[in-house]
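Here's what a typical entry looks like (Peptidyl-prolyl cis-trans isomerase):
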Amino acid sequence: MKKHLLATALFASCFTAHATIVEMQTNQGTISVNLYDQHTPITVGNFLNYVTDGSYDGSVIHRSVDDFVLQGGGFKFDTDFNSIETADAITNEPVLSNVKGTIAMAKVGGNANSATSQWFFNLKDNSANLDLQNGGFTVFGEITADSFETIETITSLVHCGEIPTVGLNEDQCPTTTSGFNAENLVMINSVVVIDDDPNSSASLSPKENTLIDEDNSSDNGGGSSGGSLAWMLSLLALAGFSRRK
């Protein structure tokens, strides 16, 4: 798959970012995100639509994989996990690289243009895997330096399967998704825009995705990737969890 001509033009001019800044208030701390407005306008617009309509308020971080990804934007919770209502899927924009500290869109394995509401934070440099797989995963922002503390707090929690939990030990992991209580989950209380000036982060220098130029005709669709929704799609039907710390 080749990069879009628009992306090429962007990189040929001045590879800096101008960003709208959003703030996620979680029960484990604050995560601030600089959005790459000019580089991935479709994806940023889609994300901000979910922000402004309150879709992410009261949602949960439902997936945490050590040294890989931290994922949210898919579920709210009352007595069980309930999928967020989603708009139409968007066009993929794989122009930036999945390096540590970036936020990218999750999507369905085997369908490059299937991202809706779910996103994930890259916990390490995942570029060798995610920049090319399944058409490349669209990076659309990066977290601020002081947000890493909150990310690390979440990833260090006891996990039930891939779900980070609060106030549980390994032996207390529920055997079904309905066995959780809201206070046992990492909740995103709100996501708000704190600076909508697209020039607010002009000093950012996102890394270009160069792997997307490679021929990925043999790609298997990325079913095992951090951004794939395969794990998410099985979550509601999950009968039990493997336990890990």
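The chain has one domain: 5-244.

More examples are in the samples folder.
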